[in-house]
Amino acid sequence: MMRFTLYFIIINLLFISCDSSLDINADYKNIPVVYSLLDKNDSIQYIKLNKAFLGDASVSEMAKISDSLNYDNAIVNLIKYKDDKIVNTFSFERTDTIKKDEGFFADDNNIIYIYKGNIINKKDNGSDAERPSEFNFVLDIKIPGIDKVSSQTKTVSDVRILAPLGISYRKEIITYSNKYVNPEYKYKSGKDAKYFEYFIEISYYENINGAYRLRTISHKEGINSSPTSDGDYTFSFLLNGKSFYQTIANNITNSSSERIFYSIRYKFMSAGEDLTMYIDLTKPTYGIVQEKPAFTNITNGWGLFSSRTSTYSPYKILNISSLNHLAVGEITKEFDFKNYSDTYIFYSNNRDLDIYKLYITP
Length: 362
Known about the structure:
Blueprint: H1 2-19, E1 31-38, E2 44-52, H2 59-63, E3 75-82, E4 85-91, E5 93-95, E6 112-116, H3 122-125, E7 135-143, E8 146-154, E9 160-163, E10 171-172, E11 175-176, E12 179-180, E13 184-188, E14 195-208, E15 211-225, E16 234-238, H4 241-250, E17 259-271, H5 273-282, E18 302-312, E19 317-318, H6 320-328, H7 340-349
Parallel strand pairs: 1-18, 10-19
Antiparallel strand pairs: 1-2, 2-6, 3-4, 3-7, 5-6, 7-8, 9-13, 11-12, 13-16, 14-15, 14-17, 17-18
């Protein structure tokens, strides 16, 4: 009897498997995916809006169709608040003029929403660098048939350069008496920022077939993080003298009959709290457990809405010893840089190339 019952169950299962098909896809429902990083120092703000969904076709096929990725009738606004009161509304325009790199997803109709203009103006800033943090920015996206998509962030305040100032404000000392020097930089975090990356930007002219072209090397020097987003946290780092010349040597690949050093400055990138969390969650994992928690701060959608900003140290030139070492030092002597005297003579004769008036005394 037991054997008969078992056979009956198996036969029934076979019939059921023949009559039924398994559909792993749920009913169609698209999900808005939003990525935007506000920058109070930029004159254009960008919002990337796409849709994610599950369909019956191959993922690789659907990804190549731009209509599968974009919304036709989305209304995208950014609302500016102060003390819970609306002070401005910025309407974003849909554009497809920004080219997208070729890849897995469709690149023929790259829809991006942009606003041309400043979201923080001079009146907002006043004389206090902390004042932009008084404003709260709320993302407001309306898509027919979908609940309102929203998020909010504060704009990140600029970092404040504390050192070097005074005598070192105009000229950078990388070598002194043929010895490398490691000048110290200090800066203070801005309000509502928690993560910082800093880059050195080295600019020079090179003569290519009789025409002088300005080149800029941007090299990431390091990262820092603040325990709070209150601002007022002080960081310091050293500009390594030998590494400075090595960075120049590593980034020059083309031939030139002469090169003329122009300027050096630092760029500080500051990230808001949500962007900091996103960076932390998506950085490489080197342990055994590779699974990462998903991150989103978008209501009725998926993605990231946060803020960042860039702050620059003043443009500086190299002192006599550092500029001469660039011309004849072991690391960079093969790149035909002019020495200190010839550099000043060059800019005296080519004043139009001294765009920031670094070498021309008033």
